[in-house]
Amino acid sequence: xxxxxxxxxxxxGLRHTGWGxxxxxxxxxxxxxxxxxxxxxxxxxxxxxxxLHVGLSQVIEAEWPDEAAVEETFVNSDPRGALKLGxxxxxxxxxxxxxxxxxxxxxxxxxxxxxTGTGHAEKAQVAAMLKVLLPKSHAxxxxxxxxxxxxxxxANHRRPASVQxxxxxxxxxxxxxx
Length: 178
Fold this sequence. Notes:
With 178 residues, the protein is an alpha/beta fold. It has helices at 45-63, 79-98, 108-116, 123-133, 142-157, 161-177; strands at residues 5-11, 16-25, 28-38, 67-71, 103-106. Strands 3-2-1-4-5 form a 5-stranded mixed beta sheet. The longest helix is centred in the middle third of the chain and has 20 residues, at 79-98. It is globular, with a radius of gyration of 17 Å. The termini are far apart.
């Protein structure tokens, strides 16, 4: 029997950062919680990043995830906007890392494909499939729904700790043999 693992999915954004927590036990997925952290556009960037840091830290403290997964950001044509979004994504990656969680990253099309079967699905299709995959979920915002989709993607793509440990041992043994 597979050991349950609690996964935190994060959909980073400077204005809205979605988060979702699921438990994966083998192929069985269970909804735990979801939500979003919001910042105001007229607030200084440093304060907005602080709000995201504090909010994600509180989620980790409350939900006790074992692993985290973050959606890679879509690079848009606005360089300033992309830079700001990148800073929010940095917060989304460093907060779980500071809590000692392994952090995985997934591109948007892989997330959509993991949930809907196609990498070019619309947000409505993702939300509809979440109701099928996590019937008890109640993501209140599109950002929370996207974060749950990231968590599901990680559940489908992650390597169990025992497999990761074996790979690390094999690589270390190969390095020493040279």
